[in-house]
Design brief:
The chain is mostly beta strands. The chain folds into three domains: 154 residues, Acid Proteases (Cathepsin D, subunit A, domain 1), CATH 2.40.70.10; 116 residues, Acid Proteases (Cathepsin D, subunit A, domain 1, Beta Barrel), CATH 2.40.70; 114 residues, PDZ domain (Pdz3 Domain, Roll), CATH 2.30.42. It has eight helices and 31 strands. Strands 14, 15, 16, 17, 20, 21 and 23 form a seven-stranded mixed β-sheet that branches. Strands 4-5-10-6-9-8 form a six-stranded mixed barrel. Strands 2-12-11-24-25-13 form a six-stranded antiparallel β-sheet.
């Protein structure tokens, strides 16, 4: 009887624990989840109340947020809601959100039975057009606080393990750093070299950012823009767009790991008022640095461990065109029907070398549409005459609908002097433009 009672008590304790924290429901108490790496940010599958969605894994957020759901209450069976207001990066006002309690979240075999969610209905916070794949929300702290999270950027998987089941391996090539927390967000200490001066900095670990470094200008510390820079759009925050200056610094170092001439952005002060509430913070370290390591995030012990991977020596480059693209829905495309060609045996054999198709069968298909959402003033694309809102149909003779948004964007980071030829649609009229990629600091 006593043994039976012990089993019952143990079971009840386990249920109570798993309701308020993520727990891994398998015998290994560990699970591996594959992710997509898009523009240096991690996208993972998250199941909410039985509905599978795609979330951005962001160590810089303390609350899980769902974006742009018009019927969120019906679709996800969200209940027990109340209206609140959230404030984040950007120069705009706080945004209205719907807080919901008692939601069931599942990430692989990791399950939490009592999760708060915040649904935001501001259309500007829809990340899907900017990343080119569906993104329904952001999650961070709730996973990291309950589990040890290994982020393998080189092989694109997470490993979620319950702390009591995790065993560290000896790693002479690793560096372990102490974490500090403010508002449930992790910070580490690093160094930057500016004007030959080495400056200690405290940086937010921001896996949800695609840049390398953001630094907050501070004359007294010597954190200032030096040499060449250019004004640019830096990204979208919860409270609006963020603009600032892009440049390079002499060096960025994390103990023995050092990066020469690393990219840096200095956001405008008005856009980061919420971030500077933590007075000791000097900026952020984000995806373009983090992806060069495989990480172990251990919030329970306030530790992060870094081991460099195959991305470590990747070059730091900038968009040399001045164009920022978004996935702007779909458009109708007329193309030859492959089935018609097969049925009529039109191929590459010698008998077809001189054959003409006078009346081929065509099909109309829905294909992704990519448009210009930001255009850097004075950039090669701007001087060539391109405009915000232009839909890019063709790049260097190839239809853009055959590429992902990430592949198209990478073309603008190519070698200085490379010729870019674009066919665009502007208000129903097709136009041709050409320009050369240039050194952004020219």
């Amino acid at each position: 009887m006593k043994k039976f009672l012990c089993i019952i008590v143990g079971f009840l304790c386990f249920v109570n624990y798993s309701q308020n924290t993520f727990s891994v429901q398998n015998k290994h108490r560990s699970d591996k989840i594959e992710f997509s790496l898009i523009n240096n940010v991690i996208i993972i599958p998250v199941e909410i109340n039985g509905v599978t969605l795609s979330f951005l894994l962001d160590s810089g957020v303390s609350k899980p947020i769902i974006f742009n759901f018009l019927n969120v209450s019906d679709t996800l069976k969200i209940k027990n809601t109340e209206t609140i207001f959230l404030k984040g990066l950007g120069g705009g006002d706080s945004v209205e959100a719907l807080k919901s309690t008692n939601n069931v979240l599942r990430i692989g075999d990791a399950i939490k039975l009592n999760q708060d969610l915040y649904a935001v209905f501001n259309d500007n916070l829809n990340f899907t057009p900017k990343l080119g794949i569906p993104v329904h929300g952001i999650i961070g702290y709730d996973i990291f606080k309950d589990l040890i999270v290994e982020i393998n950027y080189s092989n694109k998987f997470l490993k979620l393990t319950e702390p009591s089941a995790y065993k560290y391996k000896i790693c002479n090539k690793c560096e372990t750093f102490d974490l500090e927390f403010y508002n449930n967000k992790p910070y580490l200490n690093a160094k930057v070299t500016i004007n030959t001066k080495t400056i200690p900095v405290k940086l937010l670990i921001d896996s949800g950012g695609s840049d390398s470094l953001w630094l907050f200008e501070n004359d007294s510390l010597g954190i200032v823009t030096t040499g060449k820079y250019f004004e640019d759009f830096l990204g979208h925050g919860l409270s609006g767009s963020v603009y600032g200056k892009r440049s390079k610094i002499e060096a960025f170092s994390l103990n023995r790991f050092e990066f020469k001439h690393a990219n840096v952005a200095f956001p405008d002060a008005a856009s980061i008022s919420i971030a500077t509430q933590f007075k000791d913070r000097n900026g952020s370290v984000s995806g373009n640095i983090l992806k060069r390591f495989n990480l172990i995030m251990d919030y329970r012990n306030s530790k992060i461990t870094l081991k460099k991977n195959a991305n470590y020596n990747a070059k730091f480059t900038y968009n040399r065109s001045g164009i920022e693209l978004v996935h702007d829905g779909v458009r109708f495309v007329k193309e030859i029907d492959d089935n018609y060609l097969k049925d009529n045996k039109i191929g590459n054999d010698a008998s077809n070398e001189n054959r003409l198709i006078f009346d081929p069968e065509y099909k109309i298909s829905l294909k992704p549409s990519y448009s210009i959402v930001e255009l850097r003033k004075g950039s090669p694309a701007d001087r060539a005459g391109l405009m915000v809102g232009d839909i890019i149909l063709n790049i260097n003779g190839k239809p853009t609908h055959n590429f992902s948004l990430q592949d198209l964007t990478h073309m603008f980071y190519d070698a200085i002097g490379k010729r870019i030829k674009l066919k665009i649609d502007r208000n129903g009229m097709e136009k041709l433009y050409e320009f050369n990629l240039e050194d952004v600091f020219k």
